[in-house]
Amino acid sequence: RAILILDNDGRRIVAKYYTGAGSSTVTVGLASAKDQRLFERRLLAKTAKNPSTDVLMFEGLTCLFRSNVDLLFCVLGDSNENELILNTVLCTLFDAVSIILRKNVEKRALLDYLDVMFLVVDELCDNGIVLETDAHHLVARVGTRVIDESSPMEGSVTQVLQQATQQFKWALLK
């Protein structure tokens, strides 16, 4: 029913609510942005009371969450939703964010890549239907190139050399 990334104060950074044809009355009650923000604050308060758990039933929804530094990643489903599938979506989201941010998963870094985060959520689920469960494929679909930190210039140097070789060949052929 929703994918959320919240900060420590319960303010949304990324939020995507899904209301499909089979939507329950719970998510219909979250149609306005004001209702959604109130729900997010109550959810943060509930997760703060139970820091040892990562799944809970809240207002008729199954909520899986993962906390990291100053962020809270949440995936919400109906009460009859399979927790393993929701957990797979949560892990895929967190892993993709971790890959994009080069394991520096915190609010400031996430805000720098906010446009990419919205694309990640859109490519992860479409109207509540899971599209991808592999974080590396998800990052590739978004089109973000992650450079290996051990050799940050290797790809660009190779490309420059290939272009120079091609230009040299064309110059000789003329």
UniProtKB/TrEMBL annotation:
GO cellular component: COPI vesicle coat; Golgi membrane
UniProt key word Cell inner membrane: no
Keywords on record: Cytoplasm, Cytoplasmic vesicle, ER-Golgi transport, Golgi apparatus, Membrane, Protein transport, Transport
Record domain AP complex mu/sigma subunit: where: 1-144
Keyword Lyase: no
Record localization: Cytoplasm; Golgi apparatus membrane; Cytoplasmic vesicle, COPI-coated vesicle membrane
Superkingdom: Eukaryota
InterPro entries listed in its UniProt record: AP_mu_sigma_su, Coatomer_zeta, Longin-like_dom_sf
Pfam families the UniProt entry points to: Clat_adaptor_s
GO BP, sorted A to Z: intra-Golgi vesicle-mediated transport; intracellular protein transport; retrograde vesicle-mediated transport, Golgi to endoplasmic reticulum
Topology with respect to the bilayer: Peripheral membrane protein
Coarse class of the protein's main subcellular location: cytoplasm
Matching Gene3D superfamilies: 3.30.450.60
Oligomer and partners: Oligomeric complex that consists of at least the alpha, beta, beta', gamma, delta, epsilon and zeta subunits.
Family statement: Belongs to the adaptor complexes small subunit family.
Function, in words: The coatomer is a cytosolic protein complex that binds to dilysine motifs and reversibly associates with Golgi non-clathrin-coated vesicles, which further mediate biosynthetic protein transport from the ER, via the Golgi up to the trans Golgi network. Coatomer complex is required for budding from Golgi membranes, and is essential for the retrograde Golgi-to-ER transport of dilysine-tagged proteins. The zeta subunit may be involved in regulating the coat assembly and, hence, the rate of biosynthetic protein transport due to its association-dissociation properties with the coatomer complex.
Record-given protein name: Coatomer subunit zeta
Species per Swiss-Prot/TrEMBL record: Macrostomum lignano
